[in-house]
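Example record used in the benchmark description.
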Amino acid sequence: MMKRTGSTPAEALSIAKAVFHTRYAGATFAYAAGSIMRGEGTYLSDIDLVVVFDRLDAARRESFIVDGVPIEAFVHDPETLAWFVDEDVARGRPSILNMIVEGTAIGRDQDRAETLRANISARLASGPMPLSATALNALRYEITDAVDDLRGDRTPSEAMAIGAMLHAKLVEIALRGRGHWNGTGKWAPRLLARIDAGLASRFDSAFRALFADGDHGPVIALAEAELAPHGGALFDGDRRDAPALWRVI
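Model output (structure tokens):
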């Protein structure tokens, strides 16, 4: 396959700089990040660009293509960026934190860019907040419910749909339950392997058995093992009260 322009870190950085200076004139700095910048890109990879202005009316995310390369831009000022950083920390999935820490800084105010990177790096290194009892119990209930569904007489398509939903929930309890940041999609197996190669292998084997062979036993065993340190399966006694203001008058 012919190599695409922008497929190397140097080419991607050149494109990011051109976009920054033309599309975001007036911005103080930005971070160019993503798999291409890490030297891990494929021909479908994009460039992540976190752009910081002194002041905006509102943050935005926008996607576009330059020289055949997809670019996803996250456009902020310091206050909107701080809000999204706090949101990522609260959900335990540090997407924008990783972009800032891993990205290459561009723009006129390198000092501010590096100061922000140092602050975000410290926050990322400190790890996520522990799961609250409410969040943990919600995960336990959802995993329990999915596992009970798998135990029933399911068609292959039903089992596949249940398994796809269950995978994300089990990854979350495996990572967050061990005090690590969560990740979705392609990041789920990468993060599992980073903390415990054996755990990643158990996930891979269990879900291959379900999706390829229709054997739900290994996934159920994996779920039971991941639930056990947190009190096991949860159904009987589960209760979650809705806020009193959730009503239409």
